[in-house]
C-alpha cells in the first residue's frame, strides 16, 4: 500500500520501517479510541463540558494525543511522497503524482493480512485449490496481475470469506442522527449515536450458515449470489468508505501474489509436530506461528525480479 500511495518500498514488516511504524501506531490508536463505548462520555454526555485538564477530562487529553500522532503520520508520509517526485517509481505512486499535478492531499490506510494467512495456513485444501487456479492462468511463468482477477473466481471467494470472517472495522464508524427518525417501529431521536454492527451482519446464521466456519465455498458456484461482504464491511450510505476499491484491489493483489509464490502451512515444533494456531481474537487476531516458504526456485525468482524492479 505504501508503495502504491507514496512510492516507498517497505522491506521489512517489523518495526524497523519508520513509516510503517508511525502509520501502524496512528491506525491502532485511532481504532482503539474511536471504538464505540470505549470512553465514558458516550454514556455520560455532560463530560463533554469538562475541560481537558480537569478530572474526567482524560479522554480529551487522549484524543488530542491520538490526533497529534495521526497528524504526524500524515505529514511524514506526505513529506516522503514529496521527496519521491522525480524518481522513476514516482509515476506509479498516487500521492507523488497528485502532488505533482498540485491537485490534493490524500489519506493513507494499511491493511493487515493476518486473517488471510491464518485461513490459508489452517486450510491446506483451500490454499492448494487457489494455487492450482492461479497456476492454470499464469502457468507459473509470471506473477498474477489485476487483469487476471476475473479468471480467478475461487481466489475471489477466499477474499470474500476473509472479509466476512474478520472485517477490519467490525463496528464501522459511529454516526450521529441529524434529525428525529423512525426505524422498524423504533423511535430514534435527533443526536442519537448510531453504530452499525458489521460483525453481526456478517455472522448472521440465516445469511451465512455456520458463520464461525471459514468456508470460501459459501460464495462459489451455485452460491455465487450470496451477499458479498464488500457491500457491508466498507460501511453504508453517503459516508461509505471512499478507499474501498483501492483497498480491495490492493488486498487482492497481495493475496494473489502470495498464493502464487509461497507455500503457507502450519509451523512445526522441535519434534516435528504441527502447531495448530489457536485462532484467538482480542481486538484482532492474536499472533500465531506458521511456515511460509517459496513454492519453487522459479517462484523465488519471480519474487526477486519483482523486488529488483521496485528497488
Ligand atoms: C479493508 C480496508 C478498509 C475497510 C474495511 C474500511 C472500512 C471503512 C468503514 C467501515 C468506514 C466508515 C463508513 C461509514 O461511516 O459507514 C470507512 C470510512 C473511511 N475510509 Fe475506509 N476502509 C478501508 C480502507 C480504506 C482506505 C485504503 C482508505 C484510503 C485510501 C480509506 C479511507 C476512508 C475514509 C477517508 C473514510 C471516512 C469517510 C467519511 O466519513 O466520509 N479506507 N472505511
TrEMBL record:
It holds the Pfam family p450. One of its GO terms (cellular component) is membrane. Heme binds at residue 241. Its cofactor is heme. It is a single-pass membrane protein. Pathway: Secondary metabolite biosynthesis. Keywords: Heme, Iron, Membrane, Metal-binding, Monooxygenase, Oxidoreductase, Transmembrane, Transmembrane helix. It is found in: Membrane. InterPro entries: Cyt_P450, Cyt_P450_CS, Cyt_P450_E_grp-I, Cyt_P450_sf, Cytochrome_P450_fung. GO terms for molecular function: heme binding; iron ion binding; monooxygenase activity; oxidoreductase activity, acting on paired donors, with incorporation or reduction of molecular oxygen. Belongs to the cytochrome P450 family. This is Cytochrome P450.
Amino acid at each position: 500500500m505504501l508503495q502504491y500511495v507514496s512510492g516507498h518500498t517497505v522491506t521489512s514488516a517489523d518495526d524497523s520501517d519508520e513509516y510503517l511504524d508511525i502509520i501502524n501506531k496512528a491506525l491502532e490508536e485511532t481504532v482503539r479510541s474511536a471504538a464505540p463505548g470505549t470512553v465514558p462520555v458516550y454514556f455520560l454526555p455532560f463530560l463533554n463540558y469538562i475541560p481537558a485538564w480537569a478530572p474526567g477530562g482524560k479522554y480529551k487529553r487522549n484524543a488530542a494525543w491520538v490526533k497529534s500522532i495521526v497528524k504526524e503520520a500524515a505529514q511524514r508520509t506526505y513529506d516522503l511522497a514529496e521527496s519521491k517526485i522525480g524518481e522513476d517509481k514516482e509515476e506509479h505512486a498516487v500521492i507523488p503524482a497528485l502532488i505533482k499535478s498540485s491537485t490534493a492531499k490524500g489519506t493513507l490506510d494499511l491493511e493487515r493480512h493476518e486473517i488471510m494467512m491464518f485461513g490459508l495456513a489452517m486450510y491446506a485444501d483451500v490454499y492448494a485449490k487457489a494455487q492450482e487456479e492461479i497456476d492454470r492462468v499464469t502457468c507459473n511463468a509470471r506473477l498474477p496481475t489485476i487483469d487476471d482477477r476475473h479468471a480467478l473466481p475461487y481466489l475471489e471467494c477466499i477474499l470474500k470469506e476473509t472479509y466476512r470472517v474478520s472485517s477490519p472495522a467490525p463496528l464501522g464508524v459511529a454516526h450521529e442522527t441529524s434529525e428525529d427518525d423512525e426505524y422498524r417501529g423504533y423511535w430514534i431521536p435527533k443526536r442519537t449515536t448510531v453504530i452499525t454492527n458489521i460483525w453481526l451482519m456478517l455472522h448472521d446464521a440465516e445469511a451465512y450458515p455456520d458463520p464461525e466456519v471459514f468456508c470460501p465455498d459459501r460464495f462459489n458456484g451455485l452460491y455465487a449470489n450470496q451477499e458479498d461482504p464488500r457491500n457491508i464491511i466498507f460501511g453504508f450510505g453517503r459516508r461509505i468508505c471512499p478507499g474501498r476499491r483501492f483497498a480491495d484491489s490492493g488486498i487482492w493483489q497481495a493475496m494473489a501474489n502470495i498464493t502464487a509464490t509461497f507455500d503457507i502451512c502450519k509451523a512445526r515444533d522441535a519434534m516435528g509436530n504441527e502447531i495448530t494456531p489457536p485462532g484467538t481474537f482480542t481486538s484482532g487476531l492474536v499472533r500465531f506461528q506458521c511456515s511460509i516458504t517459496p513454492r519453487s526456485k522459479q517462484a523465488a525468482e519471480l519474487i526477486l525480479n519483482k523486488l529488483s524492479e521496485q528497488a
